[in-house]
Amino acid sequence: MRSMRGLEQIPWLYDATMALMEPFGLGLWRRRLLATVRGRVLEVGCGTGRNLPSYRGRPVGIDLHLDLLLRARRRAPEALLVMASVEALPFRDRSFDTVVSSLVFCSVPQPRRGLAEIARVLAPGGTLRMLEHVRLRSRLGGRLQDLIQPLWTRLTGGCHPNRDTEATVRAAGFVVDPKSRRARGTMRLFSARPPAARAQGS
Questions:
Q1: pTM of the model
Q2: Is the dihedral of CA 48, 50, 52, 53 positive or negative?
Q3: 14, 64, 106, 127 from 190: Cα distances, Å
Q4: What domains lie within the chain, and their CATH numbers?
């Protein structure tokens, strides 16, 4: 029996939700995320391609869902789109200067594996640009997120509102640039260098 798709897998509904959220702060977060993107760009979990027209050159976008990629193709016909998972990127080592993740890692089944793959495909000096929502700091807030998580994950098709993705990125060895970091409520925006860059002292 086929499982019911969540909000994240229904292109028109996802786009409508994002459009409603843009004027209330998401648009500003998105512009900040993309402001310093450079070089060869890979966007993981590109969805319907809302970010793709903002990149220079020919960006690469991956997503697991064909319906979303078809919508992304209409939005950004110049982009190279691939059906793939961040946990198994079909690209050579050191292929990209920037990897962008926008509200994605809340839904990745194995985030540490996905981050290892991102580190692998980043070129020397490359950066991960991330915009994610995270677990609330307060005990009550975090507990409420824990309580709603099972139903929320099912309705959205994978989102875990109680994940602390920034902490996971740091635990995976990435070095977050404090000058790039923005935090407000559950939202986090930052650039991070992969573990190999730290080991080389760059």
A1: 0.91
A2: positive
A3: 24, 24, 16, 10
A4: 7-199 (3.40.50.150)
